[in-house]
Amino acid sequence: MAKKAYLGVNGVARQVKKMYFGISNTARKVKKGYIGVGGVARPFFSSEEVEYYGAVTELSAARTRLVATTVGDYALFGGGQSSATTYSNAVDAYNTGLVRSTPTALSAARRYLAATTVGDYALFGGGYTSSGPSTIVDAYNLSLTRSTPTALSAARSSLAAATVGDYALFGGGSASTAPSTIVDAYNTGLVRSTPTALSVARRSLAAATVGDYALFGGGYLSSGPSTIVDAYNTGLVRSTPTALSVARYSLAAATVGDFALFGGGGLSLGHSAVVDAYNTGLVRSTPTALSVARTDVAVVSTGNYALFGGGASSSDVTAVVDAYNVSLTRSTPNALSAARTGLAAAIIGDYALFGGGGIESSSTYSAVVDAYMVNN
After folding, report:
1. Superfamily in which the 57-374 domain is placed by CATH
2. pLDDT the model gives residue 361
3. Which stretches of 219-320 are assigned E, i.e. beta strand?
4. Per-domain residue ranges for the chain?
5. Alpha carbon 342 to its chain's center
6. pLDDT tens across 315-368, in order?
7. Which residue in 188, 146, 141 sits closest to 164, CA to CA?
8. pTM of the full structure
9. Interior angle at CA 112, CA 93 and CA 301, nearest 5
10. CA angle in degrees (0–180, nearest 5) for 142-296-284
11. Are 283 and 317 in contact (CB under 8 A)?
């Protein structure tokens, strides 16, 4: 698939950064270029930094409340909810050519799980099964072979996961009816330890890594949304930096450049557009807000951008995508091909993928996977 344009200069392939055509003796800049691939127009050149590539092969099953992470040459989408009462154990893998395969399924069907990658393993931990919160952790190696390491120390769903140094951390969540403070750490050998717990029990929080810290921010306390942020360094020592500027849950977090971004989320009433940014020194700033206030948004980092896509707004499910560059300047590339909430996102090669989701109020679930590319 064409992604970039190159010219040979002295026997060396040089990437085309700008392109012009002569029109009436005037040089006109080419803003976008397309090539036909399988009868479909695909972008191969753009003066824009973030480009909507198109919808690729769909997931093997339509579902919402799934999660995604990347290991080696594959982006994996796992678990979720395939109907109002049915949970999924499906795992779909996309390689750098965006070809989909279906590795061994999760060992248990579940939604509201968390995923991250440590060393040569993609980990899918916790979640909610037909019998309640789960302790299960499934690991996929670079060949997509599944193993099942030591389970979480406590069953929980709606937890968050991030990786710092040599550890994958699974923090917080809902243990039956009560929020949890527990943090489980898995090293690159998949050996589990249990570092200091979160400072406050909460579920539906978000996690991201910046510099030498994994940050767990926001979430839902027993009494309502939270502003709390807990930071774990590479030695798994916990600290508590400046809180979020607005208390919220079901928010999304990702890393771009030297910043961890926490965007969107649910308020006590309504939805939030706020984005809080933490630098490598854990100093908080507040860049331009999302263009649409929303919760259950998916986020992924690719190149010099963090992309926030989809989610549920106060009026409807949205297809909007907001992009933040390393300077925290916001732009708004083309929207997703279909509006949906509860979707998942992962990066593979030059592509950011947004998969699944749905409109849960109408029990409508999606298998759509949208791809975005960054022209460096």
Report:
1. Kelch-type beta propeller (2.120.10.80)
2. 76
3. 220-221, 224-225, 229-233, 238-239, 252-256, 259-263, 275-279, 284-285, 298-302, 305-309
4. 6-46, 57-374
5. 11
6. 899 999 999 999 999 999 999 999 999 999 999 999 999 999 998 777 899 999
7. 188
8. 0.88
9. 55
10. 85
11. no
